[in-house]
Structure formats: structure tokens, C-alpha cells
Amino acid sequence: MNRPxxxxxxxxxxNRLALQGFxxxxxxxxxxxxxxxxWLTKEEFVxxxxxxxxxxxxxxxxxxxxxxxxxxxxxxxxxALAGMLAAPAVIVLGLAALYGELARHPMAVNALxxxxxxxxxxxxxxxxxxxxxxxxxxxxxxxxxGLAAAAFVLIALLRWPLFQVLALLGGLGMAVAWWRLRR
Amino acid sequence: xxxxxxxxxxxxxxxxxxxxxxxxTTVPEMHRFLVDRSGxxxxxxxxxSIALAQAAPGPNILFVAxxxxxxxxxxxxxxxxxxxxxxxxxxxxxxxRWARANRESVRVKAFSAGMMPLTLGLIVATGWLxxxxxxxxxxxxxxxxxxxxxxxxxxxRTRLGLVWMVLAGGVLGALGWV
Lengths: 183, 178
Description:
Largest sheet of chain B: none
Oligomer: heterodimer
Structural class of chain A: mainly alpha
Largest interface: A-B, 107 and 96 residues
């Protein structure tokens, strides 16, 4: 595994990935941190994301702080956070100031639809790519895949609130994992 | 209409620890406060602020900055972002350090092993929920479906830069092909 050379390196890496993240940063974060930079394995990425997800706050922002903190403590966490937010904030606020203009152009609206569809595809592909991380789960592959499928159905199709899904499936997964790990 | 920056900050501060699964889950509460109760934003501005931040590069949490900006300019953006990030960030760093120090404990291992499947299901569900509105729109159903499928295949099979795919999607959309 590689590691960042300095907090400045962290800042630049997160800045680079945030600026590529149209419609969300998750897909790019996986590509950059796992595939290009090699700072985390696929399993570590999913594990970190799992914790980021149950904690309150934006997942990818939590993820960036957790990774920054792991390498350089608080300075690393702040460098990663700043990298993630500073440049995109300038861009998005600039767009907000111009929004009245943009919304009047049908071409801009159509372009946004095309970009939105691609972002949806990127996230789907990221999910598929990370599924093999479940292979080494102490739950065993069939149960782990079953829980992932159940989570998809409850959230995407039945539209359960996340909190209930976390309580039900997360609780079940943790109980089984705890039981298996203790033996 | 005067805007009290401190109460803007305080409102987002209280929502921070409730935003499990991302700040997007507290949008109904933000709407109640900013549109219904204080009247600082119109319904339309509220909705377009969120759409804009989602389309722009960067984490989606920046929709909070856009809401703050539309209420009170740059200082509003800063107040809202500071409020939404401060409590959750402190908790995240503290909890992560604790988990790292206790990495070998059965409880911590069981926690992450139990949560991992859920995390993956949630990623795929997010992709699905983002795709669904396009697929319901009859005029654009097949074009966007083809675009989504192509994106999935290219991401899995090639090392093409993701940002190029997004930009290509924008160009195809602007040309009226999808």
C-alpha cells in the first residue's frame, strides 16, 4: 500500500477527486483512492465508508476526514476536508450567483440531464465493483450478499427511511458477525 | 427582511447530528425552517439550490452552502456550512480514533463486518434512485437508459477518466441526443 507524503499531498489528492465529482464524489473517490493512488484496499475502502455512513454528516466528507486523520492526525483530517470543500465551494457558489441566467437556457437543462444520467451510472458501477469486498466477510458470502440485496430493496424499491434499515439489517449483520467471530 | 446569521448557524448545527446517511436526509427539516417558518427562501429557490449543488463538482453537502448563500450571501454560506459540519466532524474524528485503537476487539470487527453489506446495498440503491427520475420521463427514457448502461460498462471495463464520461454525457444532453 502507498501512503500520502504530507498533508499537502492529501489536500491536493482530495482537491483533485472532488473537482472530478459531478453529481457526487463517491465513484471518483473509489477510483482515485483505491485504484490510482493505492492508499486503501477495496476492503478498507468499504469498511471506512461503512463507518462514515452510520455516523452523522456527509459520507464522503466523513470519509475524507477519516483517511486524513489516519495518516496525519488532525492536520491530515483538516487538510483532506479543505481539499474536498474549498475549490468546489467556490465553483458552486459562483454557479449559484449565475443561476437565474442558466435556468433560462434549455441547452443547459438538457446538458444537466445527460450529466445526471452518467453520474447515476458511475455510482451503480462503483457498487458492482466493490461487491467482491464481501468475499472475505466473516458473515460468509451468501449471507453478506443477501443482506446487501435486502438493503437495496428496502431503500431503493420500498423507500424505507435509512435509520430503520440501519437498525434492522445493520443490527442483524452485526449480531451474526459477533456470534461467528466469538467462536 | 433581516436574517439572523446566528440562528441560521444554530439551525444547521442542530441538524448536523441528525444527518445520518448524509445531510440530504434532513432536507425536509431545512425546508420547514427556511421556507415555511422563516420565509427566507422561496420554494423554488430551495429546490433549485439542491439541484444545482448536485450537478456541480464536489460533495453534495455543498447544497447547504448554496442554501446559506441564497439566504445571506457569503456569510450565510459560511454560517450554514460551519453549523452542518462542526458537530458531525468532531464526532467522526473521535469515533474513528476510538475504533482504530480498538481495531482488534470483537465488537469493532463485528460492527464493520455487519455494516459492510448494507453499505454496498446502499451504494447501488443510490445509483438506482438517481437514475429513476430519468427513466420515468417518457421523452428521455431510452436515451438516458442507454447512457447509464454505457457508463456502467465503460467504468467496469476501461480505465477511462470518470470526468470525461460526465462531460460527454453533458455534451450528448446539450445536443439533444439523450
